[in-house]
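Task: sequence in, structure out. Protein: Putative conserved plasma membrane protein.
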Amino acid sequence: EDKEYLDLILNEGAKKPVDIDESSYEITLPEWFDEAKFKRAQQYFRNNFFAMFTAKLSGLIAILAVPTILDILIFTKQSGTSLTAYKRYIATIFHTLNWYLVELKPGSKSWSSIEKVRRGHVNVSNRSNKNNVGIISQKDMAITQFGFVGFIILKANLLGVQETREDMDALVHFWRTIGYLIGIEDKFNICTDKLETTIPRLQMVLSQILRPGLIAKRKEFLDMTRALVEGLWCFNPFLRTEVALYFTYRLADVPTYHYWDNENKNEQSRLESLKIIRSLCLQYRLILFCMISVHQILLNYALFRFYYNNQLHVSRFLITYFPYLAFYKFGIRHAYVRI
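Result:
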C-alpha cells in the first residue's frame, strides 16, 4: 500500500495541479473534520513550540532538495536572496502560526490565511506553467506537507517533541485538514485518517524522494538553503547554514551524518561523520553541539521546554513589532513583513 501511494503521487499526482483557477474551488471543512482532534493538535503545538519550529525549519530545507519544488521557487524569484527569503519564510511562519494558534472557522485569521495561501499557489502554478517551468502539483504539495509534519512524527526523539499516540494522531488530523483546505485531494494527502497509516507514507517520501535529493546536493539547493537560513537569521541569530544542513541531514538519516558515537555502529561511517563535523569551524561545532543537546536532552524537561518555548514567543513578538536584526540586515523599509 505504501508503494502504491508513492507510485500514485509520482505518476498521477505529478500531473495534476492543486487548482486550475481561483473560481474552481470553495474552501469548506471536510466531512471527516474532528474539531476536538484539531484543537488537541493546536495545544500539542503550544506545548512543543520550540521543537516543532526546528522540525519545520529542517522540513523546509529538506523539501528544497526536490527539483520540481525548487525549480518553481527559483522561478518566483521570492526565495533566492537572503532578503526575499526573509520575507517569504517569515510570512510562512506567520501563516503557520495562524493555523496553529487561531480557531479554524470561516472569517477567522487562520481561514483567511489558508485562502491567501491557496490563491497564491494557483497564481504561481499558472504563471510557472505558462513559462514551461511546471505546475504546483498534488505531488509537490504532498511532499511539502512532509516539510511541516514529517520530522515531528518520525524523529520526535531527536527533536525533543514530547509524544503520545493520541497527540501524534491529532497532529496527523490537523495536517490532513490543512492539506485538504489548501487543495490536496484525500488520495494524495500524505496524512491519512490515522497515525499508523500515515507513518509509512512519511517514511516512503523521506527514503525515496527527500533523502536522495539531499544526498545529491544540487548547487541550486545549497544556494537556496543558504538564502533561507541567512534570511531567518533575523528570527534566530544562532542559525548557521552549515549547522542547519547537518541537523537536517541527521534527521533525514543521510549516511555519515551522525553525532553521538552510539548512533552508528559502522566504523567507517562514524569516521566520516567525525570528519564532516571537524570540517566545521569551532563556532559552528559549538552551535551544533548546543542545538543537538537542547533538542535531544534538555527539551525532555518541562522547565527547559517552558524556557525555549517562551524564547520563541519573544522572537515572534520582536519579528512582528520590532525586528531590530532585520533593521540591521535589510533596513527599516524591508524589515516588516505582513501577510
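The radius of gyration is 19 Å.
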